[in-house]
Amino acid sequence: MKIARITALLTILFQASLAMAGDIVPFSQTTFDQLTAQGKPVLLDIRATWCPTCRQQKPILERIMQQPAYKDVTLLTIDFDTGKAARKEFKVASQSTLIAFKGAREVGRSVGDTSPNGIEELVRKAAN
User: Fold this and answer.
1) How do strand 41-47 and strand 23-26 relate by DSSP bridges?
2) What is the pLDDT along the chain (128 residues), one digit of tens a residue?
3) Residue 67 domain-assigned?
4) Sequence-separated (6 or more) residues with CB below 8 Å from residue 31
5) pLDDT, position 53
6) What is the C-alpha separation between 6 and 102, in angstroms, rounded?
7) Crossing angle of the two packed helices 52-65 and 116-127, in degrees rounded to 10
8) Where are the alpha helices (H) located in the chain, listed in sequence order?
9) Is residue 78 within 8 Å of residue 45, measured between CB atoms?
10) Looking at the domain assignment, is residue 3 inside a domain?
11) pLDDT computed for residue 22 by the predictor
12) So what's the pLDDT on residue 99?
């Protein structure tokens, strides 16, 4: 009986934490188009597994996306090596590029920024 109660409590806590966090999902053109058509805030993260700058950005982005202020922001990740069509569409020349959208309008872009304040400012541009 105790295990069932603990499991139920953990499930509730997990669901509550998801409601307070922004989504981090792989990029698809369909998802991007749907979100931006609805006027939703979107952040594109163009990264490569071999990129040291991208590895620095990842935990910063994950922490920022956990903040309640950014629960409505969707972070779409694009693999630099396999996402050539997306890179071309968004005019991305290098990995570690972050692009903020408020609806369909690009509101900010950075390349190689690993400062928590700089990255959060970019996310804030999409969210507000």
Assistant:
1) unpaired
2) 566 555 444 444 444 344 446 889 999 999 999 999 999 999 999 999 999 999 999 999 999 999 999 999 999 999 999 999 999 999 999 999 999 999 999 999 999 999 999 999 999 999 98
3) yes
4) 25, 74, 76
5) 97
6) 40
7) 50
8) 2-19, 29-37, 52-65, 84-89, 116-127
9) yes
10) no
11) 83
12) 98
- Lookup: tokens for 107: 């509101």
68 exposure class (CB count in 10 Å sphere: 0-12, 13-18, 19+): exposed
CATH value at residue 100: 3.40.30.10
Enclosing domain of residue 84? 22-127
List the structure tokens of 66. 């956990």
Tell me how many domains the chain contains: 1
In a domain, 80, yes or no: yes
Query: If residue 44 lies in a helix (H) or strand (E), which one and from where to where?
Result: strand 41-47
Instruction: State the catalytic residues.
Output: 51, 54
Beta bridge partners of 118: none
Q: Which tokens in the block code for residue 64? A: 């920022």
Question: Which pair of structure tokens corresponds to residue 117?
Answer: 């304040």
